[in-house]
Amino acid sequence: ISPTNLALISELCVRYMREAREKGSSGVIYINCLEYLKLYNNFTSILKFLHALRDYAILYDGSIIIEIDNAAWEEKELTLLRQIEA
After folding, report:
1. How far apart are CA 20 and CA 15, in angstroms?
2. Domain residue ranges of the chain, discontinuous segments joined by +
3. Residues 41-67: tens digit of each pLDDT
4. Where are the beta strands (DSSP E) in 19-81?
């Protein structure tokens, strides 16, 4: 999957969380190295992608774990990323 295709990545994550819930489980999405997506997408697109995933995780009783390198992000971006978990 291309890192520019956030829509497809999102669709697959949502499908996984929905199927996990249907089977009586909680889906967990682990995003390692979010900085890689930053190379191919603008920050606004990444933020929208993560907010949508968070909303679906809430809907399907799933969880999202995001690993980031603080040095790769501006302070304002880090603040906005941290707000996703709120």
Report:
1. 8
2. 6-84
3. 999 999 999 999 999 999 999 999 999
4. 28-32, 63-67
